[in-house]
Queue: 3 jobs
Job 1
Amino acid sequence: MLDRGDIFLGNTPAHERAFLSAVFQAALPHYQRLVIPCAGKFAAVEAAVQAGWKPAQIVASDVSLFSTVLAHHLNSQPLAGLNIQIPDAYHGAGYDLAHLDLSDPPTVVYALKLAVLRHRAKTYYDDLLVRDLERRPDDHIARLRQQMDALKARIGGFEYHARDLFAHLEEALDDPG
């Protein structure tokens, strides 16, 4: 069942990524840069690179902490300026998050996933997922690191801004490039 509070719903389906790739390929000869607001997990950036765009030609943005942390990792930027903190409400319930290294992007993504699953857990299966994340943090963080590094090898090097859709569009709208 769809939770109406969800804004970012997850993965872009393969057929939609293929459509984006075709659009980006057709646009490539006509523009110098590609602006992708609401970048999410950077599926559109990946589709653009597959279509022939160089990461340096792509400017992406989003307002979520997840996207911002992921972009910092993909572009080898430190997280220090983001001042990431875990609220007290998330400490002490099950696996304590207080000891996590919040300067490490895969660790922050792990903490976000655990916090979201804890908040949304409604079924026994959800509880099992939470318990697994709590019991095997090092395994999950290592797997996230592998996935994030693989994505970095494919699309790293694009420009990213933690910016609202409308602010980003307003900035880019009059740019002929």
Note: The chain has a mean pLDDT of 87.
Job 2
Amino acid sequence: AGVAALLLLAGCDPTRRVADGQYLLKANSVHLEAKGANKAELEAILKQKPNRRVLGVPFYLHMYNLPDPQRIPEWRAKKDALVDRRNEKRVAKGKDPKPYRPSRAEWLRETVGEAPVILDSNLTARSADQLRLYMTREGWFQAKVRDTVEFIQHAWYQGRLHRPKANVTYTITPGPAYTIRTVRFTVDDPAIRDLVQRRAEATLLRTGDRFDDDVLDQERTRIANELRNEGYLYFTRELIQYIADTTVGGHQVDLDLRMERPLAKEH
């Protein structure tokens, strides 16, 4: 029965409550023109997600669309009037009045249902910017991101939709991946410099590896933890900043990690 209900809903037009000039977001897709980046992480970055689906059907959107919103005030007024009549009798008997409750239509729309996700060009642009930033953080400094929107006029059963649906595709051209050429540590405290140099073999930053901002963050955490273990209790990873020089040529990066002295007095 549940599957039959979903099949019945699949034949309904999910755009029937979409206003003029708006487009229901049907799907996003990320097309990566090279291997290396994590596609799942890229998709998670997108700022706008389509309505949730159950067995391929936007069930919660259909629940939202099921009641006619123009008739909800009428249904609510009837329900409230019924509660008023019952409460008059309850009060006359010395009982507490019953509270007003949402109508079934309101419950379907506001509790079960999910409002249509309307394509927002601002969110599309922000998604493209975030994808580009992610690629930069992962070492693709010349990555380009292009977003395209395809409008769909017909449903899967070939009927014409009330309003077109939109599919958004983000095409990512990574360009060359930059690798680490050199790593230098700049420390203004001789004691800290000695400790860092003594543990240099434990570094996570290796020459020849692809530049990866996540690995840089892990390295900052590693150094901060080691220094705290050595008695620098106020040393945090925020005291380690880095400069990435990408002008050295050959799609390489020279890294300079700069460590500041903790302001708090060590004991």
Note: The beta strands are 24-32, 144-154, 160-173, 179-187, 240-245, 252-259.
Job 3
Amino acid sequence: MRLKELGSALECNFDGYASNMVAASKNSATKLIQLLLCYIPGFRDTAIYNGNYVHLYKRVQILVGDVWAAYGKYKPKDGDMNDTNIYYFNDLSKCTMFADYRIPQLLRYMGIMVYTKKLCDDIDNYVEIQYSSEEEVEIRACTIIAVEYLKKVINTIIIDQQMNTDLILSIELDWLLWNKGEQMKETIPPHHRTRTIFY
């Protein structure tokens, strides 16, 4: 379904080329996310929690992150009009981690996230957690918050110790935690089970 949405959006609005959509974002990750959400409804990962809209946007952010990782990591030279890279995003730091199931599984194991006994029992017994339910939204939203705190601590260490490295982005920390979770997935408590197209 998303492939049809993407094909139709590109054909009707961007002369059939994904690169034209990326170029229209003018080096802004948030603008590209807005374009994708506007033209491709299958990316609209939104829930209602206590009467408020919660926008988690896992898949659309991971798409933008993957485009950047594959093509956009070098920054164009200032003032050089010939040195352009439409895949470089000036505001990638505004993206969060990609909230799904593997990282909360790892953070629970590490004691960074603590669940109620009932939620632990349900997850450990493979009881399905309904998409957009209070528990499912809380797991994903709390994962985003936890990763933001971890990022802040890591970047404080980088600054304090004057390390010769860039500050870490949320999406880079996601990749590190995801890989660690994948390595440990068989030896730690299970992840929550949710039927959804948004993970």
Note: The CA atoms of residues 114 and 120 lie 9 Å apart.
